[in-house]
């Protein structure tokens, strides 16, 4: 039997969404922006990306209180060419700026086949897949890049320089599941280490080095050290790629200068790069969809290696989790619920209901 702080309770998605909106508006976020942020966090919670969902609320609210994230800022959109736009995030929530950017990219893609949006002076936007989903809901393919604060050494280096910046992209399908790739270029996302720390768990020893450069299973020591890139120089190169497209190109911070979300000294200045693409540029939409369905069937129907029961398409495990959590609720430990309710109490918002 788990100790009380680690006991798991299932929260109804609608209760969680309303709770998060209440905490956000209590901290000065406009109702419109609170809806966007709460929905994006809920999408991560539903897809099982617990590291990038509502549990991040305390750290985001801390940044508002420290005056390094502006809850009232309204990002500004400028049109550069008919298929290119930019957003100055003005230090608003990354969710708000990126949502606005993807909305514009989709509009341009509907009209001209492709839409590209560069975003600067933004903040962490959590799980990239919510942007891929936003595009898929509009019937679009997408590329979703962001940079992030230093957490990885570059290949051959020993101190943090590049971010664990996820690379994400997607494509709609017909009757099968869409393709949704969303992966950090580290062995594991740093949020998984924060989650292990919160839950008092150990981490696998191939995730990170401690500050002396030794392998560690202790999340606190790992957070003082460096994450390990996946695939050695290849993971390191992907992280540099995210910085080229999201940081250098946009006019935001880059080359190790994005502020860590837990550093209260200055705004994060994150950059993002979003592309929406109409899938029927080179063939009928029905042809495209049936080719995607065929690809799905070939992938999941592939011969299985020993010990594997089922092969999944990228994004499929998260979609199955979402279906389950929509029905059963989202699991949170009591310690996580208490931390969220502390936030609610501090601004007089309604607390999170749980059984
Ligand atoms: N905004 C930021 O700065 C930031 C930084 C780091 C991570 N993140 C987020 O953290 C999340 C976690 O990233 P991650 O790299 O740990 O993800 P992950 O390793 O859990 O998954 C990576 C990809 O592999 C696919 N996948 C996983 N297991 C699979 C299997 N058995 N079969 C087929 N496909 C499979 C997933 O669908 C996903 O597309 C992402 O949502 C990412 O956007 C955000």
TrEMBL record:
InterPro entries to which the protein is assigned, alphabetical: Mal/L-sulf/L-lact_DH-like_ah, Mal/L-sulf/L-lact_DH-like_NADP, Mal/L-sulfo/L-lacto_DH-like_sf, Malate/L-lactate_DH-like
The keyword DNA-binding belongs to this UniProt entry's keyword annotation: no
Molecular function terms from GO: oxidoreductase activity
Keyword RNA-binding included in the entry's annotation: no
Keywords, sorted A to Z: Oxidoreductase
Record's signal peptide: none
Residue ranges the record marks as coiled coil: none
A matching Pfam family: Ldh_2
Family: Belongs to the LDH2/MDH2 oxidoreductase family.
PANTHER family: MALATE DEHYDROGENASE, OXIDOREDUCTASE-RELATED
Name of the protein described by the UniProt record: Malate/L-lactate dehydrogenase
Organism of derivation: Penicillium angulare
